[in-house]
Amino acid sequence: MSETTKTSSAWHNWAGNVTARPARAVTPSSVEELAETVRRAAAEGLKVKPVGTGHSFTAVAATDGVHVRPDLLTGIRQIDREASTVTVEAGTPLKRLNVALAREGLSLTNMGDIMEQTVAGATSTGTHGTGRTSASLAAQIKALELLTADGRILTCSEKENPEVFTVARLGLGALGIVTAITFAVEPVFFLTAREEPMAFDRVTSEFDALVAENEHFEFYWFPHTGNCSTKRNNRSLGPAAPPGKVAGWIEDELMSNGLFQVVCSLGRAVPRTVPAIAKISSRALSARTYTDIPYKVYTSPRRVRFVEMEYAVPREAAVQALREVRAMVERSPLKVSFPVEVRTAPADDIPLSTASGRETAYIAVHMYRGTPYQGYFTAVERIMTAHGGRPHWGKMHTRDAEYLSAAYPRFAEFTAVRDRLDPDRLFGNDYLRRVLGD
Questions:
Q1: For 399-435, what is each residue's pLDDT tens digit?
Q2: Among 84, 131, 203, 392, which residue is least crowded by beta carbons within 10 Å?
Q3: DSSP secondary structure, 226-295, as one string
């Protein structure tokens, strides 16, 4: 067996807000070795949790048992051009998948705004982008391979083990360990991005039209100001016209990462400066238009570390909920240096998807790492839950199974499959106990 095993050392997620000390960490080099790891852990009475790149803000991957690191379970297994699919090992980072697909003249249809996560970690927690008709990464899954608690490998699709496939596309790591995923792909295409500042009142009053008129629309509102930054991505014939190297560096690295890091650090040290800085920085972003292949438009680097909470609300409630957040910030002593992000998704048919069964808008709030966030997040969460909000599974929230079983009409469908596949909760942890129940 060539699996590498490490004795326990503390593990931290990307944001640094979650720490775990597993009994051991293993890095299997094959599905067979992974199955042996699971059998051994079960015999020892230890829980098992796969952990990707740690980009979840919740403790969804934390364990004091066995941490499975998927670093060696990577790469493309098969590209089926006739079926327009790619099958990829579960530990493959989205970044590597996107680059490899582009080399083959292919692309995912939609994706989130970062690509550091593994494909299994991203889909299992409901990572999404924004889209009028194109949904989350999990909704693009055509088949998956699942290692169950009894050591079996289940191949799941609409035709094979369909009842497992239905729920396992977004499984929170609660049903087993995903070992491979088959995504729908399409010939690579061009997107033209149009970014421009827009007043809060205009964005909110024209929100429905902006969503209807663009394939992918999102915007950021800068708290303590009436200013927003909007982004519209639409397919075009090309050719590629990426931002100039200097202009792109100024916008994506200096403004969005380097200078923003300084601004956030100053805001953390001297909170009273935040509103004034927000007014200046929200005006500093200028309009720009560029064209490139999808992953170069959808995603961007995120080097400033933060904690995040995101809620999915019915799309018709989005503007009202956002206006309530703005009113709350304005009447509170809170000082918020991070913009609030708003995106949309069509309804999908995945039981635990945040867009399950309803047209959805996402409202995400962030705080710079090390800044007190509880007061802000608690106040925002109160607003979101009043609108029937569903928290992002990989982002901070305080909801439990009682709340979530009411928020998701198909919640019991998921837990029934879990009871069948993992009755002893080999893949359980404290987070899953809270959100799914025992």
A1: 999 999 999 999 999 999 999 999 999 999 999 999 9
A2: 84
A3: SEEEEEEEEEE----BPPPHHHHIIIIIIIIIIHHHHHHHHHHHSGGGHHHHHHHHHHHPPPEEEEE-HH
